[in-house]
Write a structure and sequence with these properties.
By secondary structure, the protein is an alpha+beta fold. Among the domains are: 86 residues, no CATH class; 108 residues, 2-Layer Sandwich (60s Ribosomal Protein L30, Chain: A), CATH 3.30.1330. It has six helices and four strands. The chain starts with a helix and ends with a strand. InterPro entries: Bact_OuterMem_StrucFunc, OMP_bac, OmpA-like, OMPA-like_CS, OmpA-like_sf, Thrombospondin_3-like_rpt, TSP_type-3_rpt. It holds the Pfam family OmpA.
């Protein structure tokens, strides 16, 4: 049998075998994406295919070369065949694509999504609209799994609006979340004046934040003094101090139309005026719902 015929027969046989390996490898790659078996058979390994390709290329190169350049023709064909064989059997299994919105779990069909394919969350509270039972929650408010603002004491007034966040269970509260008038602790003034102290302003910052979040509620700011000094003087001082608190809250964004300032002077003591401790308790500012 002539050299060229022998080479072509060997090459043809190896081409058929290599094609089968490559086809099988591609099928296995397609199946691997749907199953946990991502490995190829031994004969599908790129190295094996490269070896087969080298034999094919060498055979064809030898068969097609002249008698004077058989060796160089075989070598060139072997190198080219090995490269082609390796490429044919290369693993083309696609890399797994990570879920774009893994925190949402399985999203029902028909749910509105954004440009990234994530369910819409209009109020940005981390609970998608299709599960949010309290849409429109203000930015930054902590919510539960249903998207509703937390209400730690379960009094019906959410924490971000609750001026009395630790009300005992079962106690009836007003719109401020308080069972009665709230004494604004540590809201103090400079001696014999209506000038708020620095620590008092810090306390009022928190009060203002909750009032701004509760714009439908109107409040009464009530000033009280002890009995030292004349009743007329105490009445005027308590009014000025109540107004000072209202003015500060207004500067923090609380609507002035939602507040009234009332001074009661020494008329409503909550402790004895005969002791320093009692008088200190009587000098106070209270916050109450204004109906």
């Amino acid at each position: 049998m002539k050299k060229s015929t022998t080479g072509l027969l060997i090459g043809s046989a190896l081409v058929v075998g290599l094609s089968g390996c490559a086809t099988s490898a591609q099928q296995s790659s397609g199946q691997a994406s749907a199953s946990s078996n991502t490995g190829n058979n031994w004969y599908q390994h790129p190295a094996i295919c490269g070896l087969a390709g080298g034999l094919i290329g060498g055979s064809i190169g030898y068969a097609t070369s002249g008698s004077s350049d058989e060796e160089s023709g075989a070598a060139t064909g072997a190198v080219a065949g090995a490269a082609i064989g390796g490429l044919l059997c290369a693993d083309r299994t696609p890399e797994p694509v990570a879920a774009q919105c893994p925190s949402y779990g399985e999203v029902p069909a028909g749910v509105a999504v954004d440009a990234e394919g994530c369910p819409l969350d209009s109020d940005g509270d981390g609970v998608p609209d299709y599960r949010d039972q309290c849409p429109g929650t203000p930015a930054g408010v902590e919510v539960d799994a249903n998207g509703c603002p937390l209400d730690s004491d379960n009094d019906g007034v959410p924490d971000y609006r609750d001026q009395c966040p630790n009300t005992p269970a079962g106690v009836e509260v007003n719109a401020l979340g308080c069972p009665e008038s709230l004494v604004l602790r540590d809201v103090n003034f400079e001696f014999d004046s209506a000038q708020l102290t620095g620590p008092a302003q810090q306390v009022l910052n928190g009060v203002a934040e909750r009032l701004v979040s509760n714009p439908d509620v109107r409040v009464s700011i009530e000033g009280h003094t002890d009995s030292q000094g004349s009743a007329e003087y105490n009445q005027r001082l308590s009014q000025e101090r109540a107004q000072s608190v209202a003015n500060y809250l207004a500067s923090r964004g609380v609507s002035s139309s939602n507040m009234r300032a009332v001074g009661f002077g020494e008329e409503r003591p909550i402790a004895s005026n005969d002791t320093d401790e009692g008088r200190a308790q009587n000098r106070r500012v209270e916050l109450d719902e204004w109906n």
